[in-house]
Amino acid sequence: MRATTALAGAFLFTFAIGAASAEDNQVFTVMTSGTEIGALDVSRTETGYAIFYEFRNNGRGPTYNETVTLGEDGLPVAWTIEGATTFGNEVDEMFELSGGEARWRDSTGEGSASVDGPVFYAPQNSSPYTMAIMARALMAAEDMTMPALPGGDLRLTEMETLTVSNGEETREVTAWAMSGTSLNPSYFLMDGEAFFGSISPGFSILAQGFEGEDERLRERAGDYGSSRFEDIQERVANPHDGPIRVRNVRVFDPLTQSLGDPVSVVVEGQRIASVDPVDTPSAPGEMEIDGAGGSLIPGMFEMHAHTSETGSFLNIAAGVTSVRDMGNNNDVLDRMIANIQSGRIAGPRVYRSAFIEGASPFSSNNGELVSTEDEAVEAVHRYADRGGFHQIKIYNSMNPAWIEAVIAAARERDMRVSGHVPAFTNADTMIAAGYDEITHINQLMLGWVLEEGEDTRTLLRLTALRRLEDLDLESEKVQSTIDSMAEAGIAIDPTFAIHEALTMSRNGVLSESAVDYIDHMPVSSQRSARTAMSEIADENDDRAYRAAFEKITDTLALMRERGIFMVPGTDMGGSFVFHRELELYQRIGMTPAEILAWATHGMAEYLGEGDELGRIEPGYLADFFLVPGDPTEDFKAVKTISMVAADGRVYFPADIYPEFGIRPFIEAPAVTMIE
């Protein structure tokens, strides 16, 4: 590999100007939704920076110790990063540039490149201070663009100037966007050449003392994202005032789990107007889409989402036209849903869960945080009064003694109850208390292997999966729990795909879950697909985690045999991972056609929407997608989608994917406007 550039006269500053102008030592506060969760400490050294970054949210988070050495041109010539990722995978990353040769090592392995021009190594795991180092280099580069290693091109875009104050001191800071190596830009703030912080709608890192600016600056980040996504929508939406005819398609019927003979499907407004014989002439004013004999499938339901704007677009491109949000910043989600419903951005229908968490040092800072039983009950009623929430979701730090009162309040307000199994109790107790659905298969299974008093508010709820290796599924404790679920009609939201990632991903090895799409993705996604999620310290860990995934698979097969209802969801953003989530259920005996019926009309029925969604019939809402192959025979065919209708709006994934740095999988179908 040879990194080249045409950046003539790229650098107009020296190391002394670029680095010394920044403050020598800086401390930043890490916050999520206004709650302090960690810190970023930056110290100047004789040759660069020493950086410490750590936060904890939901009982987990990254820890990075970094040493950066800069050359005379302000570009890194050496970088070491040690620590651990959010889920505990060891970080031991390095970069070195010497004599025109670059070498690096990250979680995927080792790499090298010959360098004959300015190029910036983009670490796989590093603190947000990386953006400040990048920004100083890019500010002096032609067009504020520079090649990156291991791939891509970094681009710096100025957003606006903002005045910030802590009540005693006022500063003028500039908001910037950094993009080019991942799906989305990162938004951050610079005070001249000094880093001031980074911002997103739910997360911020701000110079110590300016924490009071958190909410306002996160709103600005939301504005930047909304503007970007609205611009994307302008480019990828295909508005049409008249009818839309999708000609020559075989419609999947989830009731018979089969494809019909070729027909044409006509959409008017938000609904399906008719399903016509394939040779019915088009009428003047119609937009005709050539289905070319492909399969038309009802829109799918991702049942474990934490919705984002990026996820909204990518789920639409993946044929996911409805999601169940399982916990979010409520204000951020309000805004996002309004933008989707108005057509300002593409996105699925969102079915909201009312997230309630107990206050503790390990809290997940989403939804409502409560400290007493009365507060927990009041939170149920606030959600019910607010409207738009179909169920309560209980989380890890809730006191188990409060659960019966919370469930009673939910029943009073006609709301379902789902959730994690709170720490210091087990699934059997939650089943007896009246849960309608248990979230995550590990939450169920840990009750069979944990000792009394062990704290699942920490990463133990993931690392204890190693103990499943020795679990006997025929044991009385396992059979009793499954019998209780079956008898009570309690559902399970297994999040199969994330458990595959937790147990089966390995550093330097391409995950089986990503083989069908990873070559199309930006470099950051490609690196992630070759990185372990959990810490795999030795051969014993490797064996135990692999055995755990087999035990999880066997447990789901057993639950299916007992008639326990399952819902498919990823907890990983949906989209490509949702395709993998569904694909995995073939391992427990489900056929491709059965999976498609379950993920479409089955979930519509589960959410009480079976008369409106999940089928392609006259009168139903126009949510469906087109694939050229037959996914009832080969499920992988569902991964190549050429057209999606969502709420009657037509999208072509080939238009959406490049907006996120993804190479399309298939061309858009031919479109004709009938005069």
The rough form would be described as globular
- Can you summarize the main beta sheet? 16 strands, mixed
Could you say which structural class the secondary elements and strand pairing correspond to? Answer: alpha/beta
Tally of contiguous helical segments: 17
Radius of gyration: 26 Å
Helix content: 25-40%
Question: How many strands in all?
Answer: 32
Ends distance: 52 Å
Strand content: 25-35%
Describe it for me?
The protein is α/β, with parallel strands linked by helices. The strands form three sheets. A 16-stranded mixed sheet has the order 1-9-8-7-6-5-4-3-2-16-15-14-13-12-11-10. Among the domains are: about 1-235, no CATH class; about 420-565, no CATH class. About 50% of the residues are buried. Mean pLDDT is about 95; it is low at about 1-20. The longest helix is centred in the middle third of the chain and has 23 residues, at about 215-235. The protein is built from 17 helices and 32 strands.
